[in-house]
C-alpha cells in the first residue's frame, strides 16, 4: 500500500508541473573542460619529449580542437537550429557570454567550440569582406580573468 501511494505521489509530482506549468527555457549555463591535451610533462624514461607535441606540454591537441568543435555543433543543434530556437543563428553579444580560465588550452577549446556553434557568417556583417579573411570565420570574444582573481573556478 505504501509503495503504491508513493508511486502515485511521485507520478503526480512529475506530471503535474508538465501539464499546468508553462515550460519555457529562460537561461542556459554550460560548463565543460578543455579538449584532449598533451601531457603536462613526461616521466624519466619516456622517449617522447616536449617536441613530440606540436603545441608543447599541456597544450590543446588537434584532437582536442575537433572534440570542442563537435561539441559546439551539438550545442548549435540543441539551442540554435531547434524549434523554437533559443539563440539567434548568428553571434549576438546580448545573447551569449563566453568565459574561460586564463590558460591557452581552455581559451582555444572555447574558440573551437564557438566555431562549431556559429560556423558561418555573413561577409560585411559578421566579418570583413575580402579574400584575405579566413573562410566565413566570425570572431567571438572569449573572456578571461587572471587566475588569482578567478573566484568562479575555485572548486572546478
Provide key terms for this protein.
two-stranded parallel sheet, 3 helices, 156 residues
Strands across the major sheet, in which order? 1-2
* Alpha-carbon distance between the two ends: 44 Å
- In helices, the fraction of residues equals 25-40%
Low-confidence stretches: none
Q: Count the helices. How many?
A: 3
Structural category is: mainly alpha
Q: Per the principal axes of the C-alpha atoms, what is the gross shape? A: extended
Can you write the helix and strand succession as a string? Answer: HHEHE
Using only C-alpha atoms, the radius of gyration works out to: 22 Å
Largest sheet: 2 strands, parallel
Provide the residue-averaged pLDDT: 84
Question: Beta-sheet strand percentage?
Answer: under 5%
Q: What's the count of strands? A: 2
Amino acid at each position: 500500500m505504501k509503495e503504491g501511494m508513493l508511486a502515485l505521489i511521485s507520478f503526480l509530482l512529475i506530471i503535474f508541473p508538465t501539464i499546468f506549468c508553462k515550460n519555457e527555457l529562460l537561461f542556459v549555463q554550460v560548463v565543460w573542460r578543455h579538449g584532449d591535451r598533451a601531457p603536462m610533462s613526461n616521466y624519466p624514461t619516456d622517449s617522447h619529449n616536449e617536441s613530440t607535441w606540436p603545441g608543447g606540454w599541456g597544450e590543446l591537441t588537434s584532437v582536442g580542437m575537433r572534440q570542442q568543435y563537435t561539441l559546439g555543433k551539438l550545442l548549435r543543434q540543441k539551442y540554435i537550429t531547434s524549434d523554437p530556437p533559443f539563440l539567434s543563428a548568428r553571434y549576438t553579444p546580448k545573447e551569449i557570454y563566453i568565459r574561460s580560465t586564463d590558460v591557452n588550452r581552455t581559451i582555444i577549446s572555447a574558440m573551437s567550440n564557438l566555431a562549431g556553434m556559429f560556423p558561418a557568417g555573413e561577409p560585411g556583417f559578421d566579418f570583413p569582406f575580402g579574400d584575405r579573411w579566413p573562410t566565413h570565420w566570425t570572431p567571438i570574444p572569449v573572456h578571461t580573468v587572471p587566475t588569482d582573481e578567478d573566484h568562479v573556478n575555485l572548486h572546478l
